[in-house]
Write a structure and sequence with these properties.
single chain, alpha/beta, Immunoglobulin-like, 4-stranded antiparallel β-sheet
């Protein structure tokens, strides 16, 4: 039987055991809970209470793959079992969608990146310092058995940039030993990481969209500071523009390219840049 209840009925016992082992983080999975007739909010809160009683501070992540017993079709909120409602009071982070990838790396995962990113964008108001929307792991450039990569380097960078813009947990799901140095350098970019870790903990929100892509703006600590992403969803390089008013900016705006770690000058009204296919420009 591949699906069943694991810790159910033993939450406090298991939490004490994890604490005794000096575990730092727990990921609790609701797989098949609907089929067992459980309410996810209630079940997750019971586990959260058990962790609180364990005597050890352990990070708690709620995982919630949707199973067919929910019924189809379903909304993005249902896909996450509505974790945005109860996650902030039950856990440190909670999944906002289904798994971004499964098991062995598979070609063509780019649509999954967009799917999880879009699901994560539904409820930015749910998160704040210490409590985070989680669109799932980063999966940069996982190698395929037949050669090549699950995601291109540009697609992998787009996932990293968008996760940082949304202040998401940056959990690496790839083997770093297999990554190109250029990918490692991107993942270690301190300016991108600083956006993710900004003390305000505000999730970047979509402020403009068209048939090619989106513009996201994230409020940062400090008067008038924003992190802006220009996303190109299309299969060709495109000129992408942010109108400063959309991003919450006015007057003369100093623009810095966070990916290149270089200043681009001062502009008024808007800024336009060429963005690669499936790529981003990340500005501050």
């Amino acid at each position: 039987k591949w699906c069943g209840l694991g810790s159910r009925g033993h939450y406090e016992q298991d939490a004490r055991q994890f604490a005794g082992w000096k575990v730092d983080a727990i990921k609790v999975d609701f797989l098949c809970g609907i089929g067992a007739g459980l309410d996810p909010g209630t079940a997750f809160k019971e586990f959260s209470d058990a962790v609180a009683k364990s005597g050890r501070k352990m990070l708690l992540n709620l995982c919630n793959p949707l199973t067919d017993d929910w019924g189809m079709p379903h909304t993005p909120e249902q896909d996450a079992h509505n974790t945005f409602v109860y996650g902030p009071t039950a856990a440190d982070s909670w999944r906002t969608g289904t798994d971004i990838a499964w098991g062995t790396p598979t070609a063509g995962e780019w649509p999954n990146i967009l799917r999880n990113m879009d699901a994560n964008a539904w409820h930015p108001e749910a998160q704040g310092p210490g409590h985070w929307n989680d669109p799932d792991y980063l999966i940069p450039m996982r190698k395929l058995a037949e050669g090549g990569y699950e995601l291109t380097e540009e697609e992998s960078t787009t996932q990293f940039v968008m996760w940082a813009e949304m202040a998401s947990p940056l959990m690496l799901g790839s083997d770093p030993r297999t990554l190109a140095q250029s990918m490692i350098d991107t993942l270690r970019n301190p300016e991108i990481i600083a956006v993710d870790q900004d003390p305000l903990g505000i999730q970047g929100a979509r402020v403009a969209t068209d048939s090619v892509g989106d513009v996201y703006s994230k409020v940062l600590q400090g008067a008038g500071k924003r992190a802006v992403v220009l996303l190109n969803r299309s299969d060709q390089a495109q000129d992408r523009t942010v109108t400063f008013a959309d991003a919450g900016l006015a007057g003369k705006v100093a623009v810095r390219d966070l990916r290149a770690r270089a200043s681009r000058g001062t502009f008024t009204g808007s800024y336009t840049v060429r963005v690669p296919a499936h790529g981003t420009a990340f500005l501050k």
